[in-house]
Amino acid sequence: MSDAQTQIPVTVLTGYLGAGKTTLLNRILSENHGRRYAVIVNEFGEIGIDNDLIVESDEEIYEMNNGCVCCTVRGDLIRVVEGLMRRPGRFDAIVVETTGLADPVPVAQTFFMDDDVRSKTKLDAVVALVDAKHLPLRLKDSKEAEDQIAFADVVVLNKTDLVTPEELEKVEATIRAINPAARIHRTERAGVALREVLDRGAFDLSRALENDPQFLEAHDHDHDHDHDHHDHDGHDHHHHDHTSDIHDVTVKSVSLRGGEMDPKKFFPWIEKVTQMEGPNILRLKGIIALKGDDERYVLQGVHMILEGDHQRAWKDGEKHESRLVFIGRDLDEERLRKSFEACQAA
Amino acid sequence: MPTVAPLDLEGHCVAAVFLDNVPHFALADGAVHRLDNGHKTMQANDGLLAAFHDAANDRLITGGEDGKVFAVRPGGEVAELASAGKKWITSVAAGPQGAIAYASGKTAFVRFADGKTKEFAHPRSVEGLAFSPKGMRFGVARYNGATLHFPAAEGKPVELEWAGAHTGITFSPDGAFLITTMQENALHGWKLADGKHMRMSGYPGKVKSLSWSVKGKWLASSGAPAAIVWPFASKDGPMGKAPLELGTRGNTMVTCVACHPSQEVTAIGYEDGMVIAARFADAKEVLLRRPGKGAITSMMWDKEERRIVFGSAAGDCGVIDITA
User: Fold this and answer.
1) Complex ipTM, two decimals?
2) Site from B48, B65, B86, B206 to mutate, A interface, most A CB atoms within 10 angstroms
3) Mind listing the pLDDT tens digit for each residue in B168-190?
4) What residues are paired with B42 via a beta bridge?
């Protein structure tokens, strides 16, 4: 059913009003990149391009009837994707633009939870556009701005020409504090190379993490930073981070690192964590070394949805190491770390 | 032995119907093909998303990406009935006295035979539309239930609540029951006289095709490896009763059902393109078409109960003659 050859990649574009989504969309639709895009928007609005493949759709969030509050999908997307996929020859990929205040989670979950959508399309990446000047204000007055960054694979830090270098550093540090795994691109007028936002394969288990060295490096570079953030967040003591004013950040990441895992311990543990902590987990990503397994096991998750698969053989000389990152709210770092470490093979 | 007259088309077949006993195939690109002394084609919507066979008026109502509603009549006549702007028309239905209904986003429209149109705004998207067979009444499937409107009269609509996303809707032929398909793998029903709920669940997949048997005694459905056929002959419908499971196959799913016009028999179309007919009384099966290229998306019996027209997701359509 889910033939990777024919699954159409879907890019989700989030970001506040004025962050530059329309500018980026217009570039995607007009630049000569040899690919044809169907674009699903909330309102035709300012897209100045006449194109049959721009579909206006009312954002329609449906809670699934399974008792899980985080199991939400975008009902309108299910219908629009089904309609578009009946004539698949017209386009190579789909871009979904969300409203400024949109929660990115239902959009992403639609591509995992609906069998029809899942069989025909695959989520490629979630791209968040951020207005460098207005982000601090946005973070103060809404949870959505933070969620959009926390959930993103790629953050386009736009309108950098409107802030001083110091302000820019600060904004970028804030983004990093919210989401250490995302790629950040600084731009003016959404001038990011389209290859940096399209066809990323960020949710593709065989590609995810592999082409994302930043995800792995982030642990080392940001480790101390994460710690500061954690203490700060917990209000244990008033420790001020000097590089970033992150008062309004409620999302945090927990990066775990360990040796080879005992599969009999690790899988029940990760299942349990996603079941129990699912509502608090926005994203999780990991590369796991399983004892007695000569292939890398890669994992990714959104709330309670967890996907994992063997990715490739460990290379000669490559360290058999397990790494896991959670991005979410109210995560008990200490408990996650201890229980993760307890899954290590003897 | 049944024979199949194939018609290989390019693209997804949204509706395969008989109009004046001539097989018609409406494709997703908006082309409507017909086998009328040779293969002929006409154009309806620029992107056809929804179609409804208006049996009383022998026409096919279509809605599409172009925001328009067309009526396709026998002989190749295509007439635009309505236009609702740039948004997609995602659902269409036909009702009594030549009325039709169509939906775009959160709004349902009814167009009466005289061309007058009435709008019905909803707080959430209109997912499905159906007219009641009796009186001027239509139902809207929506998030957390269904809404009943009485377009010919003023007054408040009737709200039927049931948590979850309802995506499709049908009335029983006697108007006693309202059934919706849901985003989760289930049907929900209301007995309209007293509002009693009916839950019909246990499907491994979404239910996308429903068909009432003669006099509405049974409701056949897709969404499982067999056609699931619920008994509706008693006054409380299928409550507390097990459905029939007809044409069970191990390796594929039923995607389309079409009940026989006068006998308790249903045609069953599968994901792999196979079509069979199965009798309710003894579950006896007859193979009508071997597997093809795509899932069966639409089927209809002709008035003489001799032929079945079928369409598929891959465009390999055709007409089955069961008497040949």
Assistant:
1) 0.93
2) B65
3) 999 999 999 999 999 999 999 99
4) B32
